[in-house]
Specification:
single chain; about 260 residues; alpha+beta; Ubiquitin Conjugating Enzyme; Ribosomal Protein S5, domain 2; six-stranded antiparallel β-sheet; about 25% strand; elongated; ribosome binding
Length: about 260
């Protein structure tokens, strides 16, 4: 038995002693286990351990499943999103030469607690929206999404006559669950009302993105517009290409919304 395998068996023994009801399937010839997440037993993970774990490689998260006993039901949970999030956590807690399964399960408990609070907030918002029949995308025209190395960009444009109307539409858009999960929701607006002119932007954490969007609608010479670009980060930095995608989707949304060059 290799040193790696011995460490793995000892780790599983320790996890099983601490969480006796969570480990559903012990290590087999394929290096696979099934384990439930502490305090969130409706989530089951399939994890494999490569031969070089823990000396060189982290475990691999193969599958995430959510049972119908989950708060609000399984349909509220985005499995693809959870798998990506959990894999990032798994890689972050692994340090070469040290076992990490216990740390991983402990870290997930805290992350899921925050995720579920957010999910509950969104559920309450969605219930309120249904009562008053608000469509988050009402008044908006969207671009086609662009995906590059896991990151997705999508733009939305709307006609507005005042900053108050622009901000209200932006808050309405942000009530959508997927928009709320975007890493950045950048915006720029340009409004002319008689002799009053309002133009500004918001980077929302993506440095210089908002000002570039404002520059775009300025050179397009369009007015009474707000344009928003949402970015869902895929874990891989794509450098300056992100600005190309931001401008490309923003321009498409503005044109699809029917804005024409001012006279």
């Amino acid at each position: 038995m290799s040193a790696n395998h011995e460490e793995l068996i000892e780790e599983l023994d320790a996890v099983e002693a601490i969480y006796p009801d969570l480990l559903l399937k012990r290590i087999d010839d394929s290096g696979l286990i099934q384990v439930k997440v502490s305090q969130h037993e409706y989530i089951t993970l399939q994890i494999s351990f490569p031969a070089k774990y823990p000396s060189d490689e982290p475990p691999h998260l193969l599958e995430v499943s959510v049972s119908n006993s989950a708060p609000g039901g399984a349909d509220l949970y985005d499995i693809k999103y959870l798998q990506q999030l959990f894999q990032e956590v798994l890689e972050s807690v692994h340090h070469k030469g040290a076992v990490c399964l216990f740390d991983f399960l402990t870290e997930l408990d805290g992350i899921l607690y925050m995720e579920e609070e957010e999910t509950q907030e969104v559920t309450n918002e969605q219930t309120n929206q249904e009562l008053i029949q608000i469509d988050p995308f009402e008044g908006w025209v969207s671009s086609d999404p662009i995906t590059d190395r896991g990151s997705t960009f999508m733009a939305f444009a709307a006609k507005v006559n005042s900053e108050e109307e622009a901000f209200a539409l932006l808050e309405q858009l942000k009530t959508d669950h997927k928009i709320r999960k975007a890493n950045h929701v950048m915006s720029a607006w340009r409004i002319k009302n008689n002799d009053l002119v309002f133009q500004d932007s918001d980077d929302d954490g993506e440095t210089a993105a908002g000002s570039r969007m404002l520059h775009l609608i300025t050179i397009m010479d369009v007015w009474n517009v707000i344009v928003v670009v949402a970015r869902w980060f895929g874990g891989v930095h794509i450098g300056p290409d992100r600005f190309k995608h931001i401008n490309s989707t923003a321009r498409e949304a503005v044109l699809k919304a029917g804005f024409e060059r001012a006279n």
